[in-house]
Amino acid sequence: MPELDETLAGELADWSIAGLRRELRRVAATSGTRLVVEGLELINFASNDYLGLLHHPELQEAAVRALRDWGSGSGASRLVSGSLALHHELEESLAHWKGTSAALTFGSGYATALGVIPALLGSDDVVILDKRVHACCVDGARLSKATLRVFRHNDLESLEDVLKWADQRRGSGKSRILIVTESVFSMDGDQAPLPGIVQLKDRYGAWLMVDEAHALGLFGTARSGLIRALELDAHVEIQMGTLGKALASAGGYVAGSRALIDFLIHRARSFMFSTAPAPAAVASAQAALKLIQGSEGAQRCSQVWAIARQLAAKLQPGRPPTSAILPLILGPADAAMVAAARLRSQGIWVPAIRYPTVARDSARLRFSVTAGHELTDLQCLLEVLPAGSNLTAAEA
Question: Could you count the other beta carbons within 10 Å of the beta carbon of residue 153?
Answer without folding.
Answer: 15
